[in-house]
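Encode chain A's predicted structure.
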Amino acid sequence: VITFPVEKASHADIIERCELVFLALPHKASMGFAKELIDKGIKVVDFSADYRLDLETYEANYCPHEDKEHLDDAIYGLIEYYREDLKKFY
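Encoded structure for chain A:
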């Protein structure tokens, strides 16, 4: 068992200290912060729909997307189907 202390961190703390960030925010909530992280070169694993769907499908079901520039770089993490694409993530 590995234990880590839980500590409060601001957006600035996360950007300064992290190389990889997992986001488990509601749909529509993560794209703003994810964009900021990606622009700083930080890898992001997002569990919402914000980067899972193509632009047309996303906007038809949720809202206008705030980070269209990174959508083509996003990889849906279903390894059974996207194994080769996921290798680019590392």
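The helical segments are 11-17, 30-39, 55-61, 68-71, 79-87.
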